[in-house]
From TrEMBL:
<keyword id="KW-0269">Exonuclease</keyword>
<dbReference type="InterPro" id="IPR026360">
    <property type="entry name" value="Xnuc_lig_assoc"/>
</dbReference>
<dbReference type="InterPro" id="IPR036866">
    <property type="entry name" value="RibonucZ/Hydroxyglut_hydro"/>
</dbReference>
<dbReference type="GO" id="GO:0004527">
    <property type="term" value="F:exonuclease activity"/>
</dbReference>
<dbReference type="InterPro" id="IPR001279">
    <property type="entry name" value="Metallo-B-lactamas"/>
</dbReference>
<keyword id="KW-0378">Hydrolase</keyword>
<keyword id="KW-0436">Ligase</keyword>
<protein>
    <submittedName>
        <fullName>Ligase-associated DNA damage response exonuclease</fullName>
        <ecNumber>3.1.-.-</ecNumber>
    </submittedName>
</protein>
<feature type="domain" description="Metallo-beta-lactamase">
    <location>
        <begin position="28"/>
        <end position="156"/>
    </location>
</feature>
<dbReference type="Pfam" id="PF00753">
    <property type="entry name" value="Lactamase_B"/>
</dbReference>
<dbReference type="InterPro" id="IPR050698">
    <property type="entry name" value="MBL"/>
</dbReference>
<keyword id="KW-0540">Nuclease</keyword>
<dbReference type="GO" id="GO:0016874">
    <property type="term" value="F:ligase activity"/>
</dbReference>
């Protein structure tokens, strides 16, 4: 029987499958790539061929242009593709729209690479699916016991309560353009807020793409406010929700709104120092990654013979796994950004 290292192993370009001659989420351009999801630290342009879900391919096209790869190979969840005798199929990861786990099977060995994932229900993407396997490759972005994410809807309730408490202030919400923005909008709608939500131009294309894939976001309007506009025009944003990428909050764009409440939605808002460094007045703890309890429960649910850990707090999760009786090892992959989809 083939060994796990012979089927998949880390290289400077990313996780490589020698029998199939493909990489999973490579950090450099390669001839053939399997992409788990559309965040930029996992989905790069320039590959010769890309296998991914249709939604992920559409996200990559929206971000990089339609010529981001020489050949696109869409694969629906559960659809098996054979590459040089290696069976590859995708299972839902629950991270963002189109996100997948890459399941690799060869000569009786099954390995699952999760990419990024979460276990809680998300109205904007398909829920994580447990896939039993011999080797489970898990992310560990929030792989420390201190990271236990609160209830999503309770966090959104803090934002809506602030709107009622400060009706004269614009509420500027920092969200990443892919996944977090659409999830926050959906949760706000679910909570009963039906007024227009204003969005920075950097969020427009991906919000439209989500709606094209059947995720309703309700009325969205551009958060445009030119420098020097009359105070009456600025006043229309008082008591309104305005979403923008974190980078925009260091720009003059954010300072044009009336007495803004700086808000940031991230799992890292659990760390008070991070909120303070960003000048966040209302931290919202909302992550698109599994927290400590979800990570450990997932390992128990999958029950692999071996756990490989990457993307984050590798040592802590490996140590927990060993104490639980699992064989575990850190992968030490490089080139992945903890902030892209937290």
């Amino acid at each position: 029987m083939i060994t796990p290292h012979q089927l998949l192993h880390p290289t400077p370009k990313g996780l490589y499958c020698p029998p199939g001659e493909f990489y999973i989420d490579p950090v450099r351009a390669v001839d053939r790539a399997v992409i788990t999801h559309g965040h930029a630290d996992h989905a790069r342009a320039g590959h010769g061929a890309v296998l991914a879900t249709p939604a992920t391919l559409n996200i990559m096209a929206a971000r990089y242009g339609t010529d981001f790869t020489a050949r696109r190979q869409p694969a629906e969840f559960g659809e098996i593709t054979e590459i040089n005798g290696v069976r590859v199929w995708l299972a839902p990861a629950g991270h963002v729209l189109g996100s997948a786990q890459a399941v690799v099977e060869y000569k009786g060995l099954r390995m699952v690479c999760t990419g990024d994932y979460k276990r809680r229900q998300d109205p904007t993407c398909q829920s994580f699916e447990v896939v039993p396997c011999d080797v489970f490759i898990s992310e560990a972005t929030f792989g420390l016991p201190v990271f236990r994410h609160p209830d999503d809807r309770s966090e959104i309730a803090k934002l809506l309560q602030s709107l009622q408490t400060f009706p004269d202030r614009a509420h500027l919400v920092g969200v990443y353009a892919l996944g977090k923005a659409q999830r926050v909008i959906s949760l706000i709608r679910e909570a009963g807020y039906h007024d227009p939500i204003y969005i920075h131009g950097a969020l427009k294309a991906l919000c439209e793409l989500y709606e094209d894939h059947g995720v309703p976001l309700g009325p969205l309007e551009p958060a445009t406010l030119e420098k020097g506009q009359a105070k009456e025009e600025q006043a229309k944003f008082a008591g309104k929700i305005i979403l923008g990428p974190p980078s925009a909050f260091a720009d003059k764009w954010a300072r044009r709104f009336p007495d803004p409440v700086p808000i940031f939605c991230s799992g890292w808002m659990r760390v008070r120092q991070r909120a303070k460094q960003r000048g966040v007045e209302l931290p919202i703890i909302l992550s698109d990654h599994a927290d400590w309890d979800e990570l450990t429960q997932t390992v128990k649910d999958v029950n692999p013979e071996e756990l490989w850990v990457t993307h984050g707090r590798e040592d802590a999760l490996c140590r927990w796994a060993e104490l639980e009786g699992f064989k575990a090892r850190p992968l030490r992959l490089v080139g992945y950004d903890e902030e892209v989809g937290d």
